[in-house]
Amino acid sequence: MERTISLKSLAIEKQSTIIQAFWITAFAALTAVGAQIEIPHQPVPYTLQTFFVLLAGAVLGKRNGAISMGLYLLAGVAGLPVFSGWSFGFIKIIGPTGGYLLSFPIAAFTVGYLLQQRSNIIWSLISMFLGLFIIFTLGTLHLNFVYFKNWSESIANGFLIFSWWDGVKLFAAAAVANELNKHR
Asked: Under CATH, what is the fold of the domain 26-179?
């Protein structure tokens, strides 16, 4: 009897790992798709990437959300065209958009961590706002050091300019996450 229970729980753990791997990979792929939905702007385009970063943290949790975004970055650095404009390579990490990209695992982890504390629409909005703040802050810092070398230009072109666009994505991601959490 104990052996059957043990084998049964092992099968559930195996299935759970497979399902987790699927969703980690799916969110990395969705982030890549989001990167291609782009409104060109220099030096950093408007994309849907952050929508999926926020959802990865909310849906997958802190660990798997961060792993998913790490997988996304690894795929791009390895040569898969997953970054905006079908681009790839380490040059994107050290270029103007690098700070935003490198912040994705941190932001997903933060959103997942905060949402494990409680889960409602207001807390989702707060958690995702903090995730976006991390993305904007690290992105703007990096943008200043590698591109503008002027704080007012960096803040205007790397932080403030995205506020309206990411505000829309924030509310959409929080609504989707809240709806998904109702069905768990």
From this structure: Arp2/3 complex 21 kDa subunit ARPC3 (1.10.1760)
